[in-house]
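Loading example: each entry is read as two labelled lines plus one structure line.
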Amino acid sequence: MLSPKQTLDTYFLEARRDLLEVAALLDRYDESVSREGHKAEDESKLESLREAMQLLAKPDHSKADRAKQLLAHFAKID
Amino acid sequence: MQIIQPHYHAIARTAQDYERMSMSGVVAVCEPAFWAGFDRRHPETFIDYFAQISEFEPTRAAEFGIRHFCWVAVNPKEAENVELTNEVLKQMPEFLDKPNCLGVGETGLHKSTANEIAALEAHVELAMKHDQLVLIHTPHLSDKAHGTKTVLEVLSGMNVNPDKIWIDHVEEETIEWVLDAGYWAGMTLYPVTKCSPRRAVDILEKYSTERLLVNSSADWGPSDPFTLQECIVEYRRRGHQVQEAVEIFHNNPCRFLGQNPKWDIKPIRITEE
């Protein structure tokens, strides 16, 4: 098992990469809206991602079950 | 599709890379001199290294039908050793005359120290004196923005031809600075610590591609030469035509590197019969 420090040191860069991918996806969506002149008819996937990020941004998760919560959250999207 | 891998550290890779790259359409790789993972202590070690990438490595690539070109430099991490850097710089012109050597690189900055900056200036001066191309490394992660700005500041105070300078490892926060200053910009695709194939395609779609190069670097660390092919697939799946991909992944390297007459691979155009 890893210590708290080891956990951050081991996975920080991968998490950074993954967050950059999400940021790039959101930029890509905005660029496409700007290019096409309209939003997607159904933005529920975008809204789902925003809600997921809000969930992750909450500092207190006493059960350390963010992944479980996210899976349940994403299960609402077809 | 024919692909050029403009930045690839072959000495850190196995022949299997060459075989698979050849099978996927790679016709040429370019190998800048880089950090070996430890600081070398002797100028002679660099000389042997330059011989390896200018003499031996082309024979290994040729077994798989791939052309191999190289660049020579003392990388920024080892530029802290001033005595070693100066000694190697003295011997570099011999290698600039090698038939597969395209120029001076990768020089650049790592922590942007005074010694690194002095070495960068010396490398660029040498390149300009010998009418060579220059490949400039920009720092990783949290040092990138500051280091890239410093590279541009250093170059702005020198008598350089921007057409002959490729500033590598740009990302979203640095690409505009490099392109606005008139240099070529390279995107390096890494699995974790640099640009990703998808982000690179976003950049290709956002900026003029006229002076953009895409590479995977691929060295002894976590890296993968096929991030370049991943990028091509991502580019194509967004609806871009084959010729557009050829322009970026084959013809742009030809246009930049072709400023050195040793580079004899020409831009190609796909036509229907």
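Chain B touches chain A through eleven residues (CB under 8 Å).
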